Fold this sequence. Notes:
homodimer
Amino acid sequence: MKVSRAELKQELIDAGIRPSVQRLAIFEYVRKSCQHPTAEVVYEALCDELGSLSLTTVYNTLKLFVDAGLISMLTIDDTFRCFDGNRCCHAHFRCNTCGKIVDLQMKKDFISLVEGLEGYEITDAQLYLKGFCPTCLENK
Amino acid sequence: MKVSRAELKQELIDAGIRPSVQRLAIFEYVRKSCQHPTAEVVYEALCDELGSLSLTTVYNTLKLFVDAGLISMLTIDDTFRCFDGNRCCHAHFRCNTCGKIVDLQMKKDFISLVEGLEGYEITDAQLYLKGFCPTCLENK
DNA sequence: TTCATTTTTGAAATCATTGCAAATATACAA
DNA sequence: TTGTATATTTGCAATGATTTCAAAAATGAA
Lengths: 140, 140
């Protein structure tokens, strides 16, 4: 999580993406957040910092980053998409009650467990778990 | 895939769901399909067979089945939900080009690879892979 | 500076899904 | 069987996250 703005900027350039003020701010926000923000959340958080910002820009920019493989998009919640800047291999859990999404470490990469992938090219892999978190189970 | 209508009916009853004509038809369709149909696809397929059918009924019924754990809902495509009646543990792959969703067998259950699940109750697990299928890779 | 290209913007449109209240079907008691 | 309460289905309107689009602003090259 200790990444400087200059490093993030270079990462955008390396990916062939011109680091505009908006793009860099959005990239930094998603990369440093551990909360899996939605486009709306990114927009709300950066509106003040940037003076002005369009929700359309946030949507466009997040899509740009996802297509470039810089961040990933989560569809663990079926009513909205959220974004994840954590590049380490990990799974996600979403609580059916409180809706919170948490990262879970993996003992080993899960793609190795999948059979019949000969001839396929994999660009993204997500492991989603749903259920009830310890806190919500206690409050039942 | 060799399941009789009577067995499907009993399965609904065992789950506490009254097997109306619409419900049984929808249940049978999703259980026997290998195509991961959307609500719209189920609706189109059963409209004729049932004489009449409401899209709302299809949505309501699919949700009922998902909540009862009889089928699962896939969010591997972020623009629509689709449904899966295959109860065996398997992963899903979606091609970025043709959009086709295919089942993939697992060497072992993937939940066992996830760390830190003490205190959690898991009700659903999905492993989604995305990329390019062999056919689309060839046509490039 | 000037011009071409890229990026941002806001408002309108899209569309899968849900809410809702009326209509219909079903179960059960009398 | 009939009446009545309950469960289910239906169609249409509403919702809301996301996209489209064309104009405005910013940027880069010459």
